[in-house]
Design brief:
Elements: E1 7-9, E2 12-16, E3 21-25, H1 27-33, E4 36-40, E5 47-48, E6 53-59, E7 63-67, E8 72-77, H2 79-83, E9 97-102
Antiparallel strand pairs: 1-2, 2-3, 3-9, 4-6, 5-8, 6-7, 8-9
């Protein structure tokens, strides 16, 4: 996974993959939040518009809601993070992914 392909928008990273656009928490977001204790993950099959709530995270320093940086349909979520929200604290931010969106309206 090459870091130079990551696009950062509002403390979220976006990586174009074969399955769709993978979105996750940046190390900066992790720092701001502290240890993540609870996450309300999106649902597979859900359609989001840009700006819709993607994930709500409860952590030691803050409760934070992250908006989807793009519109699309959720085709996968990070099930490990749903079981154990501390996965979203992983120092390797590529493991702190939230969801994959397909049918994305490409940014012009």
């Amino acid at each position: 996974m090459m870091a130079e392909n990551l696009k950062i928008i509002d403390n979220l990273w976006i990586l174009k993959t074969n399955e769709g656009y993978k979105i996750g928490l940046t190390n900066e977001a992790q720092e701001d939040l502290g240890n993540i204790t609870f996450a309300t993950m999106p649902k597979v099959g859900q359609t989001l518009k840009k700006g819709d709530s993607l994930i709500e995270v409860e952590a030691e320093k803050a409760v934070s809601e992250f908006s989807s940086p793009m519109g699309g349909t959720i085709v996968a979520i990070n099930e490990a993070a749903e079981q154990d929200p501390s996965v979203l604290d992983d120092a390797d931010q590529t493991k702190a992914w939230i969801a994959i969106l397909s049918d994305v309206e490409e940014a012009k």
